[in-house]
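Worked problem 6 (solution included).
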Amino acid sequence: MGRSASPKPIQLRHGVLSITGNFRKNNEDSAFVDPDGRFFVVADGMGGQAAGEKASAMAVEMIPEALVAKLDFKRAGKETVSALLDRAVAEANAEIMAAGALDPEQNQMGTTVVFLVAAGGLLHVGGVGDSRVYLLRDGQLRQLTTDHSLVQALVEAGTIKPEEAATHRYKNVLYRYLGSKEGGQGACVKALEPRRGDRFLLCSDGVTDGLDGDPLRELLRSQADPQAAAEAVVQAAQDGGSKDNITCLIVDVA
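Solution. The predicted structure is:
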């Protein structure tokens, strides 16, 4: 008997768009796509002057550099990938803190970061701050990351209800981000078995400030092409009144 054909390798297709939006003077978000399609990163900077831009740019430069230099994308096991991502995030956090300490105008700078990394046959997602990774699978949208925000901590403690979080006065207050003492405490990495048809959304909170829940899910379901989907999500968030920079990076498993 002849051998059965080996399964076709999974391919990742992406679409990305980042805009300043209607309410900000400059874009402090950053996005990075590995030229070989192995990993994807989104960061949302914060701080006075151009500090947020610098912090997010440092995150999407340093973390990819660490991955390219140290990760065996074909053979690395789940624990190895998780440890390397934690270390890369911690090193970026330390560099951002150091850069902020050197320049008085940038001493409050920081950034969120989220990522998706294809390695060892799995997809690894995680991050620090309140940028998010979602998975659309079988028509259902699920948030894979947990916000490191004061409001999310209040929800988890039972102090406020989830539906109160979106309008809470502390909704933009983070207790962990790159550039903070707590920023190097791990990236909460999760590993998933990819399925063809999966669609991942990596986004800054500018997306969810103007678009969330069922409308976001329906929009992601309605656009087959990842670039068209990214553009549609950004437009809908802007039309929905988002007051922040808006960055959307979509990754499809084909």
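Discussion: Residues 1-7 have pLDDT under 50 and may be disordered.
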